[in-house]
């Protein structure tokens, strides 16, 4: 099998739990470290799918690699190759498919609930999961839903938490989290959580009962990642 191309945009926001899932299923992958100067591949001829991780930058920033990644997403989507995006990665997918990313009414940082949307696509992707789940978030922007896609996860703070179209899955929330990542982000991005609100948790709040929260979130990730990986066989 050709490897997945997995794009990292900052060193602290790597594949996390997704890497565990890929290794468990013996699926090869190649890390493209944008933060370390790796070039964006020119095409998708030598991969089986694309994965885009998060980052503190905006998809609207004038960074040269953004347009290159957008072109790659369009190539893969046109071939119905699996494409997966986490947070910034989801915003990249949205923009590549004709959508927009704008400021969310409020920042959403920490552990917050999401619920299944009442769409056919949600039933397909989230079968077997509870109506409401608690996942990790760290964003101040939100994506629109491109033509042909359907919302599959939502909440009151950010109605567009995830959308799917074909073999493409875009997430605003972070499915890839492991406990050390939560602790590291709370330290590295500490200035963003100095003044907690109803939607912004303090470091103490987001690390409380961390093992149990991670375990529950990874059960959700297992379902979504498994469904997405099934597209590798199409």
List the helices and strands and how they pair.
Layout: E1 4-8, H1 17-24, E2 29-33, E3 49-52, H2 64-78, E4 83-86, H3 88-96, E5 101-116, H4 120-125, E6 132-143, E7 150-154, E8 162-165, E9 168-171, H5 179-188, H6 203-207, H7 210-229
Parallel strand pairs: 1-2, 1-3, 3-4, 4-9
Antiparallel strand pairs: 5-6, 5-7, 7-8, 8-9
Keywords:
234 residues, Rossmann fold, nine-stranded mixed β-sheet, 7 helices, 9 strands
Detailed description of the structure:
By secondary structure, the chain is α/β, with parallel strands linked by helices. The protein has a single domain, classed as 3-Layer(aba) Sandwich (Rossmann fold). β8 and β9 form a beta hairpin.
What is the gist of this entry?
The chain has seven helices and nine strands; from the N terminus they run βαββαβαβαββββααα. The protein has helices at 17-24, 64-78, 88-96, 120-125, 179-188, 203-207, 210-229, and strands at residues 4-8, 29-33, 49-52, 83-86, 101-116, 132-143, 150-154, 162-165, 168-171.
Q: Could you say what the CATH architecture is?
A: 3-Layer(aba) Sandwich
Structural class, from secondary structure content? alpha/beta
- For the biggest β-sheet, the strand order reads 2-1-3-4-9-8-7-5-6
Number of strands: 9
